[in-house]
Write a structure and sequence with these properties.
- The complex is a heterotrimer of chains A (488), B (499) and C (96).
- Chain A contains 18 helices and two strands.
- With 488 residues, chain A is an all-alpha fold.
- Chain A has a domain of 211 residues.
- Chain A has a two-stranded antiparallel ribbon with strand order 1-2.
- In chain A, helix 4 packs antiparallel against helix 5, helix 9 runs antiparallel to helix 10 and helix 12 runs antiparallel to helix 13.
- The longest helix of chain A has 32 residues.
- In chain A, 65% of the residues are buried.
- With 499 residues, chain B is mostly helical.
- Chain B has a domain of 163 residues.
- Helices cover 73% and strands 4% of the residues of chain B.
- Chain B has 21 helices and three strands.
- In chain B, helix 10 runs antiparallel to helix 15 and helix 11 packs parallel to helix 14.
- The longest helix of chain B has 32 residues.
- By secondary structure, chain C is mostly helical.
- Chain C has a single domain, classed as Helix Hairpins, CATH 1.10.287.
- In chain C, 84% of the residues lie in helices and 0% in strands.
- Chain C is built from three helices and no strands.
- Classes of the chains: A mainly alpha (488), B mainly alpha (499), C mainly alpha (96).
- Chains A and B meet through helix 14, helix 15, helix 16 and helix 18 of A and strand 2, helix 5 and helix 6 of B.
């Protein structure tokens, strides 16, 4: 009897967007329909994969049936599936926003034509990272992501964007090469690169050096202070949907790899942990200060990303050399929360700029138009990023602080609280600007700024807020396949 | 008997769902807005009445939703919750009428009523919170919802007040978050349980329990405006009168005071708190606040500012009564939660009427206003006399029980404290009354604003609350009076032999 | 000193030279070249990993990895060069 081969969702979620990217590139006139179609299809496949993980536990596919260590395995455990679901879900909503934003005749032809192939390529790369199980494959996927992300950065074609994109490109290549050098070290030492092989390896100086190199490369790619210099300009000058994708999704891929390296390769050494924690604190302070000083809305949002990435690294550092499972959960939840809320925030910022015509924070309250729904989305996203209950960001901070308090790490609690206060300070600059006070007591042009395009940021913002109520099941799902427990 | 019906959730959802609708309504559809406002407030009053009836029959409502492993959002309708929720429901209805009248022609009414409604939802949540975690959620929500109300006028002073308000209250919220975490780590639970959950911890690590108490009281004391965390309150009086009224009577300061009640009785338990020496510390803090607030009120010429300092003083009566660790004082404290609310809301609404109708904002310009606005000033007089503690008004009842409780607990120093405070109350209220009733009106200065007749929507609410002041005091022993309800609560919080 | 170590150190040295260049240089084209140098260094390390004393045949896996790496780097360089050209044109227009 011949068994029906079950559809292999792992391969599908990587290759479907890739095929979409090629198709969208070949059919520029239909690019947006191809694009949205491919994203929807990928989202459906991702849901199927999530269901499969939920019912069967971790899923593994050897590509071409070669098998590790020679071949390439794709594996989805709870953590991978969560991040993949996050990517496709956020991506789907950003796509809907983009559909509207690039549909206008104002948008140059180039944007409409190239956004979709680039974004689909990015999606393919991101899913590839989350499902990869060997280091070299991760390197390739990182490069795929870099190329697509740089393309998205310069999409507007403005001089600032191209300049920022070039800086981003340098940082990205250098980060990938540092990673590659680390990969070389690992191969020299162990003769294999698959996760399962790494897990069995005894710690050695060469592996320590390899880990340090790879973490340095990833820190550059994820813009950890002081390697963040490329990020604010790149994220602030891209078009809104592109910024949303870059800030919400792209930086998460590198963070995810740090998580996996610490899980499979080596527990991070004391020195590395201290350094990461210190840099995280630096990122929080510097990012917040710059956000407080920023004069433009999108720049403020971009700087806030620097600060929030710092917090995720603090969560890593809090995990300490012994890799306390709770802190990894905190880091993962914070990543998830940041992705959803930041996508909402960048889309909302884009909508506000579109309606008002500028994004100077000082003059936000002087506009005759009030894009109320976009402002509401921005405010809700800010609540989650600040970490007020019941948002997803709060759940992450709660676990982080709970763990820190249980182990008596009071300095990490202080850092988290300072980060929270600073984020309130810089977001309240914007939120106060949303409350328009006209001294003449006239009601001008209220409620003009509603559009279908507000649906995407609003949905994302509501998710960022509401998913906090589902933090317990999300955590349980992430733990499928024991990504935090070490032994698979 | 525990009941899992959704009634508490529905009461919470009414203002919560009204808020986005009100925010989305166009500015011009004033009629629809008023209808939604009043309709929601009325339905809420009815549902709360129904809930109170059920709770008085011994039913406890308990709804749970797990957020993180072991950590629940919990809505619980117990007698203490009813006390606060009833206050919020009744005063929301009255303040809504007043606010509709007050802001009739003003700008941004959609925004105002939207956030107003959100603020009320937060208050309901605070009342119904069954554990400190849930309490924290609504405590933060209250901060966010009141901020746009405080800066409603958008003037430089309002924005400055808003900034100070936000720094204090969000800072307080963060400290409370720290306290909640600490409680969770120490006790493994944040539930409000009569008798407390920290008995074991207090025996093993008394220092940790004492530190935690300090953290919690700082977090709550900010909103309750206890010295030295009070500075935001007198500044925040730049808000429109209905907002000040609600802030001082139900929403913000009471949320802090209510939190203190919950923490002392249901997190620590009165006996544990007493054993750790915490009640004494709290009582001293409250006493300082009572005196300091009254003394500062004396020197204020701005009417609303004087009332604000009076709030600083009066709200700490609640903390004092809780800290005296006597069931009788506890009754006084809980009754004062209600009594101070109805008295202070009356005073603020009349202050708003003086400003709206006559353009008078200073005590020194109150000469003869009693003759111009007899109705409003009569209400003001009743409430002010109640604040001083004249029998048979509401304020007298709470002060009487506080004093009796002080004697009962062997804390004789409370009597001179209360007497001194009442003298100070008289010293800052009586001159206002004297000016209003017994002095000739000033000749109108040239820059005096035009007198505007105030409509019934501004006149009726303070009259109604003033009547409540009289009723709550005069009929204090009738069933379902605030005082009788507090007796019901206190029997639950104190073990039987304490009575 | 074994052959492997000499080659390895050379690879590392090339990488470090490239790294310094990428961090210090200002001219966009030179920075790209510096990054290319980094990639050569990293590739070197992988080739060293493949090397085995004759008569044993070298390990084919790192070779495959190096080839992939070269392909990736070529595309990255191409994109970087395209961006530099674009920026050049834009700056030119800007000044006119």
């Amino acid at each position: 009897m011949i068994e029906m081969p079950a559809i292999d969702w792992l391969t599908a979620v990587v290759f479907a967007p890739l095929a979409g990217a090629i198709l969208a590139f070949l059919l520029p006139r239909q690019a947006h329909w191809v694009g949205v179609g491919a994203v929807v299809l990928t989202a459906l496949m991702a849901s199927a994969l999530v269901l499969q993980v939920l019912t069967e536990g971790a899923v593994v596919t050897p590509l071409g049936n070669w098998g590790a260590p020679l071949g390439i395995d794709l594996r989805a455990d709870g953590l991978s599936a969560t991040l993949m679901a996050m990517t496709t879900g956020v991506g789907l909503l950003v796509s809907l926003g983009a559909l509207n934003s690039y549909a206008h005749h104002r948008a140059p032809e180039r944007m409409r034509r190239y956004f979709w192939p680039l974004w689909l390529l990015l999606l393919s790369g991101l899913n590839g990272v989350y499902l990869s199980t060997d280091l070299f494959n991760l390197y390739v996927m990182l490069e795929v992501i870099s190329l697509a992300a740089v393309g998205l950065t310069v999409l507007s074609g403005r001089i600032e964007a191209v300049r920022a994109g070039l800086e981003y490109m340098y940082a990205s290549i250098l980060g990938a090469l540092l990673f590659l050098l680390g990969v070389g070290f690992v191969y020299l030492e162990l003769g294999r690169l698959d996760f399962a092989g790494l897990l069995a390896a005894p710690p050695s100086p060469a592996l320590g050096a390899a880990l340090a190199l790879m973490v340095a490369g990833l820190a550059l790619k994820t813009a950890l202070f002081p390697l963040h210099v490329w990020l604010p300009q790149a994220h602030a000058n891209a078009t809104a949907p592109a910024s949303a994708l870059l800030s919400a999704l792209v930086v998460k891929a590198s963070l995810y790899i740090v998580l996996r390296l610490a899980q499979y390769l080596l527990p991070l050494s004391e020195v590395l942990v201290a350094l990461i924690g210190l840099l995280g604190v630096g990122a929080i302070l510097w990012g917040s200060i710059q956000a407080l000083r920023a004069e433009r809305l999108k720049l403020l949002v971009a700087w806030s990303t620097v600060a929030q990435i710092g917090l995720v690294f603090v969560a890593f550092a809090r995990a300490g050399a012994d890799g306390v499972a709770e802190s990894w959960k905190a880091a993962a939840l914070l990543m998830l929360a940041h992705a959803i809320a930041k996508a909402a925030m960048f889309l909302a910022a884009g909508r506000i700029k579109e309606e008002i015509g500028h994004d100077r924070i000082r003059e936000l309250d002087r506009s005759p138009v009030r894009p109320t729904l976009a402002q509401l989305s921005f405010a809700l996203a800010a609540i989650s990023l600040v970490g007020l209950p019941p948002s997803l960001g709060f759940a992450g901070k709660w676990i982080l602080m709970e763990g820190a308090m249980t182990s008596g790490y009071w300095h990490w609690i202080a850092v988290t609280m300072i980060a929270t206060m600073l984020s309130v300070a810089y977001f309240s600059r914007v939120l106060t600007g949303f409350l328009r006070f006209d001294r003449q007591r006239t009601t001008v042009g209220e409620h003009q700024g509603w559009a279908l395009a507000d649906a995407a940021p609003l949905t994302l913002a509501l998710c960022a807020l509401g998913l906090g109520l589902l933090a317990a099941p999300i955590l349980a799902f992430m733990n499928i396949g024991y990504p935090f427990g070490g032994a698979p | 008997m525990n009941n899992a019906s959704l009634l508490p959730l529905i009461i919470l959802l009414i203002p919560l769902c009204a808020a986005p609708v009100l925010l989305a309504l166009p500015e011009r559809s004033a009629g629809l807005r008023t209808a939604i406002n009043l309709g929601a407030a009325l339905v809420k009053v009815l549902l709360v009445a129904w809930l109170s009836w059920k709770v008085s029959q011994g039913v406890i409502y308990d709804l749970r939703w797990t957020v993180l492993p072991g950590l629940d959002l919990n809505l619980q309708a117990d007698p203490l919750a009813i006390l606060f929720i009833a206050l919020s429901a009744v005063l929301w209805l009255i303040t809504t009428v007043y606010a509709v009248g007050y802001l009739e022609k003003g700008p941004h009414r959609a925004r105002f009523f939207g956030f107003f409604s959100l603020c009320v939802a937060a208050t309901v949540g605070i009342a119904l919170a069954g554990n400190l975690f849930t309490f924290l959620l609504f405590y933060e929500m209250l901060t966010l919802a009141t901020y746009p109300l405080v800066i409603h006028y958008g003037t430089a002073a309002a924005l400055r007040a808003g900034r100070i308000y936000l720094i204090y209250t969000l800072g307080g919220g963060l400290v409370l978050l720290l306290g909640t975490l600490g409680l969770w780590v120490l006790a493994g639970s944040t539930d409000f349980v009569p008798g407390g959950i920290l008995e074991g911890v207090a025996e093993d690590t008394p220092l940790a329990a004492q530190l935690l108490f300090a953290v919690l009281i700082i977090g709550l004391g900010v909103k309750a405006a206890m010295v030295p965390l009070h500075s935001w309150l007198p500044v925040a009086m730049v808000a429109p009168a209905p907002v000040s009224a609600l802030l001082h009577a139900v929403a913000v300061v009471k949320a802090g005071a209510f939190g203190i009640i919950r923490v002392v009785y249901e997190v620590y338990g009165i006996e544990t708190a007493q054993a750790l020496g915490l009640t004494t510390a709290l009582a001293v803090l409250a006493a300082i606040t009572i005196l300091y607030g009254s003394i500062r009120a004396l020197g204020q010429d701005d009417i609303k500012r004087r009332l604000a300092w009076s709030t600083v003083s009066q709200v700490s009566y609640i903390a004092l009564g809780v800290a005296l660790a006597s069931p009788i004082a506890a009754m006084g404290a809980l009754a004062h939660l209600i009594h101070q609310g109805i008295m202070k809301i009356t005073l603020f609404m009349v202050a708003g009427n003086l400003a709206e109708g006559l353009g008078i904002k200073q005590v020194s310009r109150m000469n003869g206003v009693g003759l111009i606005m007899p109705g409003s000033m009569a209400a003001f007089t009743l409430a002010a006399l109640g604040m001083i503690g004249l029998p048979p008004l509401a304020g007298f009842v709470s002060k009487w029980y506080l004093a009796a409780g002080g004697l009962d607990a062997g804390q004789g120093w409370v009597i001179p404290l209360l007497l001194g405070s009442s003298l100070l109350n008289a010293a800052y209220f009586l001159p206002m009354l004297h000016r209003a009733w017994f002095r000739q009106p000033d000749a109108a200065p040239q820059d005096a604003p035009v007198r505007r007749p105030i409509g019934w929507m501004l006149a009726a609410p303070p009259t109604a609350t003033a009547a409540l002041v009289l009723v709550a005091g005069g009929l204090a022993n009738a069933p379902f009076s605030p005082l009788e309800w507090t007796r019901f609560i206190v029997t639950l919080e104190y073990s039987a032999e304490a009575f | 000193m074994s052959t492997g170590l000499i080659f390895g150190l050379t690879g590392l040295g090339v990488f470090v030279v490239g790294l310094c260049g990428a961090l210090v240089l200002v001219d966009p084209l030179r920075r790209v070249l510096a990054l290319k140098l980094c990639s050569v260094g990293a590739g070197f390390m992988l080739v060293v990993a493949a090397w085995k004393a004759p008569p044993e045949a070298p390990d084919p896996v790192p070779h495959a990895l190096v080839i992939t790496g070269i392909v990736v780097m070529i595309s990255a360089t191409a994109v970087a060069l395209a961006l530099i050209r674009r920026l050049h044109t834009l700056e030119h227009e800007h000044h006119d």
